[in-house]
Design goal:
Length: 216
Amino acid sequence: MNLSELEFGALLSYAPRGYSPEILHSKNVMIALKKDGFVGDPPILMSQWVAQTIQRNRTTLPFGSFFQPNTILVPTPKSSLMRPNTLWVPERIATALVRAGLGKEVASCLVRARPVPKAALSAPNERPTTVEHYDSMRVQGRLSEPDEIVLVDDVITRGATLLGAANRLTDVFPQTRIRAFVAMRTVSNQDEFDKVYAPYVGTIELRESGDTLRRP
């Protein structure tokens, strides 16, 4: 692994445990995000809402500098092999961001060479590691070495997928600055959850054990 740490920005937060009104609201927002469902009045797709919210608040968001005119947005691949006409939420978010002027283009250059277990459906000790994600991914297509790449994902838990993806991209683009943006971060401890709209910048670190440590 050439990268042992990756910086990421997150717009929203979600608590999988707890029953307060704000936690229940966060669960509904997470479901809408995973389906790229319609939200708001008038209704728009969740991916468009994310892009428009960043566009309106870019100068005050802690990760606003991630989105430069020359930034290439790379959607994080699904855990399964891609099939035609399959919903790919990270790609939809990346496309909405570019349409909002928050990046140069979308490069869907990261693919799974083989599937890995879906982290959300796996026990904590059975979730794929950063190395397993790295080994399962390939970079395809031609892309001249960009100055900036932002990996785009919908939800982050530990960050193993993003760190594995960033390392795979670093092999091909060693001089490129690589960061990540996620629409929503998981807050496992409900006592640490504040509200759904909670922009953050954090890091994903690779431990010697092979696990990842996400802060915050």
